[in-house]
Design goal:
This protein is mainly alpha-helical. It has 2 domains: about 1-125, Orthogonal Bundle (DNA polymerase, domain 1), CATH 1.10.150; about 150-254, no CATH class. Helices cover about 50% and strands about 0% of the residues. It has 10 helices and 2 strands. A two-stranded antiparallel sheet has the order 1-2.
């Protein structure tokens, strides 16, 4: 009852009084609160980032039951500096931001100053500087380079097209009125009349197999995503197809 002598409990109900008396302010579990908070997050990707941040901090501290009182300013700074030394390009900013956000929400929920309930007595994040993540190296071509590429003239002379054809580079395009007739594979000529089929394949690759992804962090990830999408497409039970049979693909038409 000594705790009640320091607060005004005249407006409290019985449940609030019992909760105030039985709560142990000296030990509040950060890990338990963080897991409960993460379960309430609707977005799976965001919840995964918060979970990774919590697990990384628990591994560093050597326990799966972190207490608010054990997470001091020095221990959190050492944790962040460890990620900087290890070369964590994004985690050094993302993980501390997640932990700080959980801490701030815990102070809003667990502390009730008007009732004298202050279970989290300090906020170490007020004096902690979170480093910024490293900028991603842009590997995409510049707009000027793309304009130069697409402004290159298409070879229309017969000898140039034949040289490309020998090297297995086929110019798949309809004959324009200012172009002479050229060599074309029979299969490619048929595909020119099947644009809807080609667009259907592209749509399945992008929306079903998720081959289109713009946030690759390395060339290896790009290659893995590309190959996985192509394999997934080949495993589809139903795929767009043309009911044709080409006896000899080496036959050419003028």
């Amino acid at each position: 009852m000594e705790k009640l002598n320091h607060v005004d409990y005249s407006t409290w109900n019985l449940k609030e009084i019992v909760e105030y008396v039985t709560n142990d302010d000296s030990q509040v579990s950060f890990s338990s609160y963080a897991r409960t908070y993460i379960e309430k997050i609707d977005k799976p990707r965001t919840a995964k980032n918060y979970t990774l941040a919590l697990k990384h901090l628990e591994r560093y501290m050597g326990t799966c039951e972190l207490m608010f009182q054990s997470l001091t300013e020095n221990s959190l700074n050492e944790w962040i500096n460890t990620m900087v030394r290890d070369g964590k390009k994004r985690a050094k900013e993302m993980y501390p931001v997640c932990i700080r956000h959980i801490w701030q929400n815990a102070m809003k929920e667990l502390n009730v100053p008007e009732q004298g309930i202050v279970r989290i007595k300090y906020n170490p994040w007020e004096r902690i500087t979170i480093p910024q993540s490293d900028e991603t190296v842009k590997q995409a071509k510049s707009p000027n380079a793309m304009r130069t590429f697409f402004s290159c003239p298409i070879p229309t002379k017969p000898f140039a097209i034949e040289m490309l054809f020998v090297d297995d580079i086929h110019l798949v395009t309809k004959i324009k009125k200012n172009m002479k007739n050229s060599l074309m594979n029979l299969y490619d000529k048929i595909l020119l009349r099947k644009r809807a089929l080609v667009e259907t394949v592209n749509d399945e690759l992008k929306n079903v197999c998720h081959i289109e992804h713009t946030r690759h962090r390395s060339v290896d990830n790009f290659a893995v995503n590309l190959l996985a999408a192509l394999i997934a497409y080949n495993m589809l039970p139903k795929k767009p197809e043309m009911n044709i049979e080409i006896i000899d693909k080496s036959k050419l038409i003028a």
